[in-house]
Amino acid sequence: MGKRQIYPSFTLLFNDENLVEHPVELGSTRCTPRSLNSTRQISHARDSFASVCSSSHLPTSHHATPTTETMPREQEQSPMDAAQRRLSAVSAHLQPPPAPTAGCVLAANPTAGEYAHVQGYSAILPEKLQTGKWNVYRSARSPLRLINRFPENPDIGTLHDNFIYAVETFRDCRYLGTRIREDGTVGDYKWITYGETSTSRTAIGSGLIHHGILEGARIGLYFINRPEWIIVDHACAAYSYVSVPLYDTLGPDAVQFIVNHATVEVIFCVPQTLSTLLSFITQMPCVRLVVVVGEEDVKIPPTPANTGVQIITYLKLHNQGKMSPQPFRPPKPDDIATVCYTSGTTGTPKGAVLSHENLIANVAGSSLGIRFYPSDVYISYLPLAHIYERANQVALLHYGVAIGFYQGDNLKLMDDLAALRPTVFASVPRLYNRIYAAITNAVKESGGLKERLFHTAYNAKRQALLSGRNPSPMWDKLVFNKIKARLGGRVRLMTSGASPLSSDVMEFLRICFGGEVLEGYGMTETSCVITTMDIGDKLIGHVGSPNPSCEVKLVDVPEMNYTSEDQPYPRGEICARGPIIFRGYYKDEVQTREVIDEDGWLHTGDIGLWLPGGRLKIIDRKKNIFKLAQGEYIAPEKIENVYAKCKFIAQCFVYGDSFNSSLVAIVAVEPEVLKAWAASEGIQYEDLRQLCTDPRARAAVLADMDSIGKEAQLRGFEFAKAVTLVAEPFTLENGLLTPTFKVKRPQAKAYFAKEISDMYAQLRETESARPKL
C-alpha cells in the first residue's frame, strides 16, 4: 500500500525537518521546497509570506509565525525569492478571500491563544493557485505548516521513541494502576512506574523473540483495558511488531475473519476470551502462539490437537523474556504500527493501516492546544481497540500522566471514579447523555426547595459564563460540588468524541462540573483527531478547528443541496489531508481508492459547515442518508441524536425508505422512567414488555419525542410518525450494536422487520380513514 505524497497546496511552501514535504503546484511548474534551516531563514520566509499576502489578498496573521526550532544551517540561497516571483506572476488568478461574516472577528482571549487575522481559530487558504478558490482551512496555531512531530521533541518519530522519552523523563513516576489484586479481589489503586513498565515491555518483547516471532509479525490483543494491554503494545513498538486490537465483545465470526485477514500469529487474551478462541482455533491456521493474561494460577487448557498452536501464560512469557533479554528492533516512522479494524455498521470489518508517523503526528498536532501534566490522573475504560482511547494513551504517555484502569465492569465505573479521582475524563455522548438524564431526573424528583435552588444556581452560573465572568464559588459549595463528586471531584478536563454531543448536554457539563469540556471530531482513518475545540472557547454546538497536523476542506454534495457557496455558511462533505491520513485499508485497494482521492484528500462521508471563527459544525451524514417517497433526504443519525434527549428513550432506531412518505422509530425504553410514568397515570401492567405494548405508553413517548423534535427545530418530514416500544435494549449480543455502540442499521431493519411493517400498515390505515376533500 503505497504512501500517497501528492498534496498540491500553496500553503506548503514553508518546510523544516518537522514539516511534511509536498510538491507545490504553481501553474505548470512543480517543485519540492527545501527545508528552512535557520532562524534567520524562517524570519525571511515569514517576511516573504507577508509580502506575498499583500499582493495576492492572502490574510496575514501575527499568529502565522513558524516556531523556531534548532535546525542545521542551509548553505544555499533560500528559494523564497523565486517562490515569491512565481506567486506574483499568478496573483491575478486569485480571488479575494471570503469576506468575514458579521461578528466573525474574535476578541483576544488569553486562555484561548492567538488567532489568525479575522478568521478566528482557523486560517483560510487556497487549495490551488490556479482556481483562486479559498477553501482550505488550517489551524491558526500553525497555518504555515502541518505538524508531524512534537515541536519541543522533534526527535520523537515513532511510538517506541515516545515511550523511551517518557521513561527517561518520568522513570519513577506512577504510570499504570489497577484495583484488581492477584487473587481477584478489589482494593485501592496500586501502581507501577514508567521504569517498571519499561522492564516488563522488554521482557514481553524478548519473550516473543524467544518463541521465534519475527519482526513485522501481527500481534492480536483480545482483552479489555488493563496494564498488560499497554505493556504488550509497547513491546510491539520496541520490536517492530504490528498490533491488531480485537474488541473483547466481538463474536466468533468477526474474530476469525480479522485474525485470518491480518494473518495474526500471536494472540494475547484472558481466560474469558480464550474459551471463545478455542471454539474455532482450528479455523485460524496462521496462529502460532496464544498468551493468556490473568492471575498466577490461571488454568491453561490442553492444546488442541493438529493445530500447532502453543498456549502459555503471560507470566511464563514474561519470565522467558526476562531470562534472555533481547536488543530492541526499533521501527521507522513510516513502518506500520497497527491495523485497526473498524467496527462498521455494515459489511465485514475493514483494517485501517496506521503508521508510527500517523499516530505521532496526530497527537503532536492536537497537543498544541490541549496539554497534560505529570500531576494529571486519567481513567482508562473506553475500549483500547478504538482509536479514540488509543490516541489518548499516546498523548498521556508523552506528558507523564498516571493512568488508572477500571475494573472491567461498566456498572462499577462510578465506584472506580470515586477511588481514582481522575483529573482528565474522556467519554462518549452515550455516557454523557446518561449522566445528564440521571441528574436532571433526580433534580425533578427532588422537587420543592432543592429543585428551585438547583435552577437558581444553574442559571446564575450560566449567565456568568456567557458574560465571561467567573461564577460565584457559592454555587459550587451549595449545589455543584455534590455533582462533581460523582466523577471523583477533581476533573479539570472532559473530552467527548465518537459521535455528536448535543449543545444542551455540553452546556450542562460545563456548568455542573466546572472544568473545560471539549468536543472533538475524528475517525480511525485519520489516526483520531481531525478537529477539536480550543481551550477557552465558550461557544458550543461545534467540533472546533483543524488539528494542526491536517488541513480540512468541504466538498460540494449537490444531491443533498450542500455547496461551498451556501449562505451564510459554506457547507459540504468534510475532507482531510496531511500526515495523519492512514495508509489505506489492509489488502483492499478498491475501498482505499473510494475514500482517498488522487490529491490525497480523505473523504469522511460526514457533512459539515464552517461557523464564524473557523469552527467546524457537523450537520449531516452522507453515507447513511436515504430518500423518502416524496424525495426528501433523511439523515437518521442526526434525528436519533435529537431523540436521545427524550427521557423515555434509552436507544432509538429511526427508519424510512423511498416507498413511504414518513419515518417510524423503534425505541428501547428507559425501564424506570416508563414505569414511573405508568404509576403516575394509574396504569396497571404485568411486566415491562406488556407496558411497552400499551397504546397510552406509545402515545406518551411519541408526544415527548415530538416536543424534543420541535425544540431541535426538526423539519416536518424528520419527525417519526409512529413508534414501537421494546423492553429489550440494543446490545452487542443481539447483533444490533457495534462495539462502539452504534446501531447496525441493516441488522436492525431485519430484526424489527415485522414491527416496521406493522407501523406503516397502521399509518396507511389511519391515512385512508381520514375524510377526503
UniProtKB/TrEMBL annotation:
Pfam families: AMP-binding
GO biological process: phenylpropanoid metabolic process
GO molecular function term, any single one: ATP binding
Annotated stretches, region: Disordered: 53-88
Keyword Oxidoreductase found: no
Family: Belongs to the ATP-dependent AMP-binding enzyme family.
Name the record gives this protein: Long-chain-fatty-acid--CoA ligase
Annotated source species: Urochloa decumbens
